[in-house]
Structure formats: structure tokens, C-alpha cells
Specification:
Helices cover 40% and strands 16% of the residues. It is of the alpha+beta class. It is elongated, with a radius of gyration of 22 Å.
Length: 247
């Protein structure tokens, strides 16, 4: 389940955006706010020695044209990081009480993101990610008749019970809303006829700005960071908020 949660296209997209942002913060913010001396210090820390004239010239050229590039981890590095994050998710899943909910007919659906964290939306958390770390309940459909519900709180450690019609409708709606593109169910039960899907919106927010594939986030937030008005506040789909400090 943990690996299934971290291996989705949505999560890989979040990782790429955050990696790109961190690199820009290191290079662009350091050079623009603190100047050449701090850029030399950054290169020295990175390489374990003072930069050569050629390396320093290349770093200055990069910093001065940084908006023309994107900086993503390669696929091997990204996959290795996702497996590391899956091991952290395992602890979060194991430390919660589990339930197995059953239906007598093929009533449960699943999606292309089957591990579904859910929590109530409020005005205070609407820009914050919902994930394994802060979900009120996590759903994982096993097949059309069984779904695991991993809850928070002090309910029994393991419980098996039959799902009511209200349970099934509520779970299906929450699982369907978490999908990226595809929802799978038994067509003869017409499950989706009873679900009105509305856009959930991106899971990744940076300084309250929803980040999509076409969002040039660095251009929108760059001046605030360089002028020292704010530090990046990243809210992502793990349900973990990241506050990054620079300067």
C-alpha cells in the first residue's frame, strides 16, 4: 500500500516541482540576494573545494538565466527516493487501527490511485495537502466486495464488519474523487451514476498557489524570496507541510 501511494504520476510530479524549486532557491536566491561571495561558498560546500574560474563563470551564467531552465532529478534518483518515502509511509499505516469492510455484492469501485486518504475540508486546510500523515481515514479497495479502512483514533486494532449502503456510497465517492484519470467498477451496477464528481484540484500548493503542469511557480514567487519577504511554504499530498528557510 505504501509503495502504491508513492508511485503515482501525481506524486512524481510533486517531487519534480519541489526538486526544481529547491535548486532554484539554492542558486538563484543565493546569487541575487547575497551576491558573488555566497555563490562561491555554495559551490565550495557542494564540491568540497573552491570553484575554478570556469565553474564560477558557468554558475553565474546559470543564475542569470535560471528562468530558462527546469531542474528535475533523473528517473533512477526519483525512483530511489520514492521507495525511501514508501518505507516512511509504512510506519504511518501500521500505527493506525484497521478495518475490513465487506459488501455482499460487487459495490466497491477502485481507481488509478487506489490508496485514498481523506479528511474533512475546512477553510483553514483547503490549501493543504491531504495524505497518509494527516488523513482521518485511508481507504484501499481490495476487490469489488472488500475495502480496507485505516482510521485514526482509538478504535479496535482490527475489525471485520459488513458495510451499510451509506458506508458504500460514502467510500465510493471519496475513492472516486481521489482518482487521476480512471475509475474502475462493475458496469452493471452503474455505481458512477450516483456520484457527482467535481474537480478536487491539485494536491500541491506552494504559498497557497495551486501547482499544475502549466504553472510557472518560480516566476510567481521569485521576487518575494529574493527580497526576503517570505520563505517557501509547501503543502503536498503526503499531508506533510514543509517550511523551507533560506537566508
Amino acid at each position: 500500500m505504501a509503495t502504491q501511494f508513492t508511485r503515482t504520476p501525481e506524486h512524481r510530479f510533486q517531487k519534480r516541482v519541489i526538486s526544481d524549486l529547491h535548486f532554484r532557491l539554492q542558486v538563484d536566491l543565493t546569487y541575487q540576494r547575497y551576491g558573488l561571495e555566497d555563490l562561491v561558498n555554495l559551490l565550495t560546500d557542494r564540491h568540497g573545494r573552491a570553484p575554478t574560474d570556469i565553474e564560477l563563470s558557468a554558475a553565474i551564467a546559470l543564475a542569470e538565466s535560471i528562468t530558462d531552465y527546469q531542474f528535475f532529478p533523473n528517473d533512477n534518483q526519483l525512483i530511489a527516493e520514492l521507495f525511501d518515502e514508501a518505507s516512511l509511509c509504512t510506519d504511518l499505516l501500521c500505527n493506525r487501527p484497521w478495518k475490513l469492510l465487506r459488501s455482499r455484492r460487487d459495490h466497491f469501485l477502485t481507481t488509478d490511485r487506489p490508496v485514498t486518504p481523506w479528511r474533512r475540508r475546512t477553510p483553514g486546510n483547503r490549501h493543504r495537502g491531504t495524505g497518509i500523515a494527516n488523513a482521518e481515514v485511508i481507504y484501499f479497495p481490495l476487490d469489488p466486495r472488500r475495502v480496507i479502512a485505516i482510521e485514526s483514533g482509538d478504535s479496535p486494532a482490527w475489525l471485520v464488519r459488513n458495510a451499510s449502503a451509506a458506508d458504500i456510497a460514502r467510500i465510493n465517492e471519496r475513492v472516486a474523487h481521489w482518482s487521476t484519470r480512471y475509475v474502475y467498477h462493475r458496469p452493471n451496477h452503474r455505481i458512477m451514476d450516483r456520484i457527482a464528481l467535481t474537480p478536487e484540484g491539485p494536491l500541491l500548493h506552494i504559498n497557497g498557489i495551486p501547482v499544475r503542469e502549466d504553472t510557472d511557480i518560480w516566476s510567481r514567487i521569485r521576487s518575494n524570496y529574493i527580497e526576503g519577504k517570505s520563505a517557501p511554504a509547501i503543502h503536498m499530498g503526503f499531508g506533510v507541510d514543509i517550511q523551507t528557510e533560506h537566508g
